[in-house]
Amino acid sequence: MTNIKGIYIFGILLLCATQIKATVKRDIDVSSLYMGISEDRLPKEIVPLSYEVQIEPNIEEQTFSGFIKIHLRWINDLKKISLHAHFDLTLEDTKIKLKQMTRDFGNRTTFEDITILRGGRLPRKSIYVLHLKELVKKDSECMLEIPFEGNIWETADGLFRGHYTNSTTLDQEIYLATNLKPNNARRLFPCFDEPGFKVPFTVSIARPTDFTTIFNTPLLRTDPHPLLSNYMLDYFDKTPPMSTFTFGFVVTKLQRWNNEPNLSSPTINIWSNQLDADFKEIHEKLYLTYQTIKDYFNLTIPLPKIDVLAIPDLPTADSIGIWGILIMRDTELLKKGNFVLARELLSQWIGSWITPEWWSEANINKALTSFLAAEFVMTMDGGVEFNGKYPMTILYSLYYELSKRYPHSRITKMKQETESFKTELVFRMLNFTLGKFTFQNGLRSFTLNHRYKTFTGDDLWVALSNQAIKDGTLETHFNVSDIAKSWINQNRLPLITVNRDYDKATAIIDQKLYLRERPHDVPEKDKMLWWIPILVSTPDSIKLSNYTSYVWMNGTRQINIANLPKSNQFIIINKEEIGPFPVNYDPQNWNMLSNYLQTANGRSAIPTYTRAKLLHDAWNLAYAGELSFATAFDMTLFMKYERNHIVWSPVFTFIDHFGRYIDMSEVHKKFEQYTTILLAPLYEELGPESENEEHSVTEMRKLAKTFLCRSGYQPCIAEAQKSFELWLNEPDTPFDRIPKEYICPVFKWGSMDEWKLGLKHLSQFPKSRPQSERTFLLKMLVGCPSEQEKINHLLQLVLLESNSNFTENDILLILNTLTGGSVGYTSLLKFVSKHWTLIQERFQNNTNLWDKLIGSATGMFATKEGYNMVKDFYDQHRGEFGSAQHIIEKSLRNIKEEAQWSDQNLPVIEEWLETYLSKSTKSN
């Protein structure tokens, strides 16, 4: 359903605005690391064998110079050398030397000069080509010597400079650091800048005498710089074979925390600006995490040390993980939790020691480390860090995004991030279905065979397949590659439909593309098939934790299963979301599930994630037109007794989503009554906030209060208005003195005077306060009112009077917020229609604002009445819409589709609500 997107996004924004954190924060390194990867691939006729690098930064002038020797081998006869050198790197081909190496019978090496005719970069490529006078024969070895110069950047690319305040002296300190991922080593020195080239480095780095240099490997020795009196030259141990993007160093005045020496290898050092901070707990956490990873792989990483640098104001959102070094924001290191540390330490194994062959494999690398980090965190703290929400937060987002007619639109970054999340869930599915023992041993075999090497996805799938077949958890004619690629290579998710034959104790199971938005006219959807594990749980087996008793839908459209339980017993497919796919059942099975969950034994028997899944699937399938809304509502009846926040999470989402979707219909008031009956017992039982209560309880109370206030729950409204009296009686009261969850109900249910007081505060908003507070207040003033009078007053100021308090960005925000409810977009359409001439004259030449205005005024209706309103508006001003002509025509097409949905579903919903409310009245 096309309108759902806008409503859903607004709902999420509103939840965020009210500071209700309904999702767990997963600091997964974003896919932007791999966006815009240069495809400037080098020919394979020449390969590097080793590097010798000297780098001399000039911190004051923000430049650096250096010298590199590259030991090369010729794979084919060739008269030129191609290597990477960024446009920012200065090379002089007249200073570049090439010497051929020969060895005599005594294994002594001699060098013979080879003439370089010329050098230069290829057009629009960061490839530098040296043309030679003579043909160099296959298997020859040469030493290439190149001096170079470059710039130190302020942004976190290549070699960059940062600043922080010294915690002791309060002086501004400078540091240098490298961030060479994914292909920025070519900004630092000419090289073969592809992950597949893994060779050792011998490195020396110059630094001022009062600084320290931290490199991939330990310091070997330090000498005075031969030319600069106030500089030292640090020499470091030779590195193991490694890719250029894992090369890195930091030149800093950070101090090493004096921790107790640990006899085991590697030594983990913490470098920080806060010398008075107690890093003992963090140090222990780092060692515990390292030991957990080591035990999992049964391999000790070949590092004598790992330096963890806590840098204030690090100019990148992500940690910088390189071979032997982890660079983090100090706040990130000091915060509670293990996930980020686990993920970054894991990258020393899978990423640095074992490296993707090319960046197309980086998604698999990132997904695997994220999945394993989550597993280790849950092993170490029982899942406390994730608050019980992993992997549901990721999964529900995937279900929503990948069920659209056009996922991601053209947002490449979002697409890459989604693909990584999906791949992470594929690893989780394999961990369940192959068995944790098999999955772990498969990874052990994989890491053992790829140390110091590169890998492709197929290498990983082969290792898992071989182990699974050996352990008997995968049939010999199956392979993990087919399973994994059916999920990774398709930018969609499947829907499983189960139709039982109760007389024969069998069922037919179908798979098809899961589509939530309508119409379901996706090209080639019938060709999409997945390998899907079908795990059947019954009332007798629902508590069992065995996930390996399943059958595969091996890329087939339909299968039959037998030996199902009696007709009076339900079945559940995909318990605990072992795979990322929703499941639909026949009405009888849904009915048995609903009834079972309303019993105390049933709620305790069905695991938490499975209860949440059943709710989530039922509602989303109803939206998709795959299930009756009566059945979806039936599945909420047990929530009267449910108190687990994980199960409530999807309920809050669909209350928000569905309430906004139907708020123009007569059904909406009945839905608000239903919401109050559903949430009031939960809210009252939770009571007032107490000290040291779990975060999940606080979160659940806030959500319950938010939706009760929105539904007109009188105790909440009274509480909100009492709090708001601070403003009425004391106009100078700071805005942040009023609890944010009370702002919206007052603006919705309160008087015009109360709303105007908020508007006055907006116009006089103090510049000393964070602008995020002003944005929040503006959203509440626009998105909360239930009377058109308030909206009209605001639109008069914004659209007609050119009020100086509102910027163009404010207007865009107002228009976007108005799409979140029928009062907003209905008022906007009527206002624009009434004042058409003035509004058209003012905005039509600003196509950005004009298009947004027409889209917001017409795009969110979902009923026949709404269609008629927009059609009348269109007919009245036909040919006058300019750049927004296609927008209103698209709105009309979408509303017609939505109106069909409303005609089909609203009567069913209304009948169910009337029956439910009638029973509730009698029971009271």
From TrEMBL:
GO molecular function terms noted in the UniProt entry: aminopeptidase activity; metallopeptidase activity; zinc ion binding
One Pfam family, short name: Peptidase_M1_N
Entry's Gene Ontology cellular component terms: cytoplasm; extracellular space; plasma membrane; side of membrane
GO biological process entries: proteolysis
Subcellular locations according to the entry: Cell membrane
Stretch forming the signal peptide: 1-22
Cofactor: Zn(2+)
Domain Aminopeptidase N-like N-terminal: 47-245
Membrane topology label: Lipid-anchor; GPI-anchor
Keywords, in A-Z order: Aminopeptidase, Glycoprotein, GPI-anchor, Hydrolase, Lipoprotein, Membrane, Metal-binding, Metalloprotease, Protease, Signal, Zinc
Domain Peptidase M1 membrane alanine aminopeptidase: 291-487
Domain ERAP1-like C-terminal: 570-896
InterPro entries reported for this sequence: Aminopeptidase_N-like_N (IPR045357), Aminopeptidase_N-like_N_sf (IPR042097), ERAP1-like_C_dom (IPR024571), Peptidase_M1 (IPR001930), Peptidase_M1_aminopeptidases (IPR050344), Peptidase_M1_dom (IPR014782), Peptidase_M4/M1_CTD_sf (IPR027268)
Main location: membrane
PANTHER family reported for this sequence: FI02158P, PROTEASE M1 ZINC METALLOPROTEASE
Family: Belongs to the peptidase M1 family.
Protein's UniProt name: Blast:Aminopeptidase N
Organism (species): Drosophila guanche
Upper taxonomic lineage: Eukaryota, Metazoa, Ecdysozoa, Arthropoda, Hexapoda
